[in-house]
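To close the section, here is one more complete example, presented without commentary so you can practise reading it yourself. The ligand is G3I.
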Amino acid sequence: MLHKVTFAIAVSAISLLVADCSNSKKTTSSSEMPSLKETFQKDFAIGAALNGQQIQEKEPNAAVLVPQQFNAITPENIMKAEIIHPEWDKYNFDLADKIVAYGQKHKMEINGHTLIWHSQLPAFVRRMKDADSVRHFFTDHITTIAGRYDGKITSWDVVNEALEEDGSLRKSIFLEKLGEDYIVEAFRLAQKAAPNTKLYYNDYNIEQPKKRAGAIAIIKKLQAAGVRIDGVGIQGHWRASNVPLKDIEESIVEFSKLGIEVMFTELDLGVLPNPWDSDAADVNMKAEYSAKMNPYINGLPDSMQVKQSKGYEDLFNLFLKYKGQVSRITLWGVNDGQSWLNGWPIRGRTNYPLLFDREFKPKPAFYRVIETKTKSAGKKAF
Ligand code: G3I
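Output:
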């Protein structure tokens, strides 16, 4: 009898362990899956970056999953200048209008991404030599796009990635041709064209002290000039094994002292080796492919699932601790197979940075994230 009981206990313990590590493999139907947006409804919005197919609801799995899980969306690419404003006098609003219609249909927050960014500029801008042409583009671009969507979208990343790692201003075409006041000018133009839209500064690594100081200087300069800034977006492209929790917590505290919203706008936790051992997210950084740098082509080992789940769990515990200051958490993509991290900084790798696997099934990290809320609610109840 004793043997039978011991055996039964051992079997259930093992089943629990296996279930924890293999949630990604089980076929969970969407109706029995918890919902991120419902779980954190009283805390912060939960967003995802959507690609063109998803915006047009051409991907059946995403068409079901996205409205079930997320109440905020950001276009991953289709509002970038290269796509929305390909030539001097030509705007291409087709997909941008579609994301607005999609978000309105599902009553989601829509974050416009992005008005002023040094990267993904159309060829006609990259060729510009004189300051007047750059200023003309800059003014027309912000005024036209921010004006068109005012009252229809929630917010804009007005300026994206304007800082170097040391906190100084990035040497971009805008800094070079328009001078260091271009950020204030961008927000001033956006404020005029879009009085009903929230205006944000967005960047990666601004949780790091030097770059954070640069972001704080930008925000203070805007405030001193009497120009509206409503929030700051910390992108959150981190490595699962190295989430900088202390820096993140300090940043939430420091940024919110400035009286603005704090958001995590492009969250993903990559699991692959990084050639430079860094968390930079500069799209221009590239490295050579080698098999050693692509170790998980046949699936993510349980040890890495556990590490990643812990990274997400720690982060969401922190977000909950500061739920009064943190207004939105956006994942940069819907499923692992669609993440930019499969192609950057090395093309053709197999990465697993998000909460849903390549078949749109929830991963162990997803359940850990949900548990941060159920556990914190449980703590309060007793
Ligand atoms: O759509 C074209 C396709 O027609 C063409 O055949 C193919 C060939 O390379 O390129 C396709 O465009 C790619 C586009 O993503 C859509 O998939 C671009 O090459 C590629 O550079 C682009 O990458 C995007 C990158 O920003 C640059 O815009 C990533 O998807 C997107 O996730 C990434 O997002 C950025 C944020 O905007 C800012 N913060 C960092 C973040 C990650 O880099």
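Once you have examined the tokens, check your reading against these statements. Residues 76-77, 80, 120, 160, 235, 266, 281, 283, 340 surround G3I (CB under 6 Å). Strands lie at 45-50, 72-75, 109-117, 155-160, 198-203, 231-234, 237-239, 261-270, 326-331.
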